[in-house]
Amino acid sequence: LVGWGFFSGMEKLIVCAHKRPNALCRLICFPWAGGGTSQLAQWSTLLSNSIEVLCVRLPGRETRLNEPFAKDMTSIVNEVTSVLLKELQEKPFAFFGHSFGSYLSFAVALHLKEKYGLEPVHLFSSGAHAPNSDAVLSIKRIPIHDAKDEEILAYIQKIGGTPAELLHNKEIRKHVALTFREDLRVLQTFSFEKADIDIPFSCDITCFNGSDDIPHDLEGWQELTSGDTSFYKLPGGHFYLLEHSNEIFLTKHITRCIENAGL
């Protein structure tokens, strides 16, 4: 029964479109605010066979629609860590997160390092500020409680990432706005003080951004690892990564970085 409990935890939290038991490394993908797993889980078709792609599915969406949303960053970090710990201990892993997912992946990586001495072979961040940047504080000041659904939906439509035809449906609009609101609320509970700890990571970090997105404060990443930090701008806005040509670049580059990590 215990095994079954673990299995159902894994089934709930993780989407793996192509199981690759012989893979050398796992790439764990963390979605953006309001996002599900459909796009990133499909990266497994573009990545080399040496990499198994696992995509994190948060409560309150897809097959977890009836579960309450996570109340804070710590509860997400704890769930991801407890469900995936055995996997992360048995085989090298890398993290990719876009926007909200970038902060999630950082928070999980930090917890794994502090508590278990585990760290990714590579950390890929996309469309987000460095977690130790003052720019993150501005996210905390967004008055999410007062924002009306229509304002949230207007913002979501402006940045893209949600197919417009979905937003014609009233029920879906309501759920999209709610999910985005709840994810942003989680992000506002995240705090990271660089002064508290020494350089947390030794892995390389790569930051990807859309050339037309708002400029993100990325310098701080260099203070978070003793490894190399590199930066790439790809054509497009906040959801540049949904363009097929950019997906090809990202997945090729991620494959190369992971294969060069000397696993």
UniProtKB/TrEMBL annotation:
<dbReference type="InterPro" id="IPR001031">
    <property type="entry name" value="Thioesterase"/>
</dbReference>
<dbReference type="Pfam" id="PF00975">
    <property type="entry name" value="Thioesterase"/>
</dbReference>
<dbReference type="GO" id="GO:0016297">
    <property type="term" value="F:fatty acyl-[ACP] hydrolase activity"/>
</dbReference>
<comment type="similarity">
    <text>Belongs to the thioesterase family.</text>
</comment>
<dbReference type="InterPro" id="IPR012223">
    <property type="entry name" value="TEII"/>
</dbReference>
<protein>
    <recommendedName>
        <fullName>S-acyl fatty acid synthase thioesterase, medium chain</fullName>
        <ecNumber>3.1.2.14</ecNumber>
    </recommendedName>
</protein>
<keyword id="KW-0276">Fatty acid metabolism</keyword>
<keyword id="KW-0378">Hydrolase</keyword>
<feature type="domain" description="Thioesterase">
    <location>
        <begin position="26"/>
        <end position="249"/>
    </location>
</feature>
<keyword id="KW-0275">Fatty acid biosynthesis</keyword>
<keyword id="KW-0443">Lipid metabolism</keyword>
<keyword id="KW-0444">Lipid biosynthesis</keyword>
<dbReference type="GO" id="GO:0051792">
    <property type="term" value="P:medium-chain fatty acid biosynthetic process"/>
</dbReference>
<dbReference type="InterPro" id="IPR029058">
    <property type="entry name" value="AB_hydrolase_fold"/>
</dbReference>
